[in-house]
Amino acid sequence: MIPMMVGDILKYTPTSTVGKVADVREKDGMVWIKLDTTGLYYDAAFLRTADPSEYREVSFKERERSAAGRESAEAALEELRKTEEEVDIRRFTPSGGG
Fold it and tell me: What gap in Å lies between CA 3 and CA 37, rounded to an integer?
């Protein structure tokens, strides 16, 4: 495994996600690397050095927009859950046992 330090540009090979190392943590013998582009931790075993030309810094506005989209999606999902709880299944099934 290559040594990874904060500021290095790496690529997560399963998804080709490229980001700059924001944090490095070790837990239970595994090394976890946080990439700035997603804010997620990745198993270091699946990270490789990336070419700097592959890195695209995420602006503060893009992060805010992404967070707002996530919040609205969560609200829509919660509304769907409420609707499902309120539905009376008897309206959709024939009455009687056959």
Answer: 20
pTM greater than 0.85 (yes/no): no
Rg from Cα positions in the chain: 22
Domain boundaries along the sequence of the chain = 9-54, 60-87
Question: Across-strand partners of 35?
Answer: 21
For residues 95 and 75, what is the distance between their CA atoms, to the nearest angstrom?
35
What pLDDT was estimated at residue 92? 62
Which of these, 79, 68, 10, 62, lies nearest to 41 by C-alpha position?
A: 10
> What backbone phi and psi angles, to 5 degrees, belong to 25?
-135, 150
Average pLDDT of the residues of the chain:
79
Widest pairwise Cα distance in the chain: 69
